[in-house]
Amino acid sequence: MPVEETLRALLRFAANEAIAAVQPARCLHRSVALERDVLSIGEQTIDLATVDRILVVGMGKASATTAAALEAMLGSRITEGLVITADGYRVPTDRIEVREARHPIPDARGLAAAQQLANIIQDAREDDLVLVLISGGGSSLLCLPQPPVTLDDLAETHAQLLRSGLPIHSVNVVRKHLSLLKGGRLAELAYPARLVSLILSDVPGDRLDVVASGPTVPDPSTFADAVQLLRDASVWERLPSSVRHVLESGRRGDRRETLKPDALAMERVANVLIGSGRVAGEAAQRVGGEHGFHAQLLSCTLRGEARIVGGALASIARRLRSSAPPLPLPAWLVATGETTVTVTGHGRGGRNQEVALSAAQGIAGLDGVVIGAVGTDGCDGPTDAAGGLVDGGTSARLRHAGIDIGRALADNASHDALAASGDLLITGPTGTNVADLVLLIVSAG
Question: Kindly report the CA angle at 427 between 413 and 215, in degrees rounded to 5?
Answer without folding.
Answer: 85
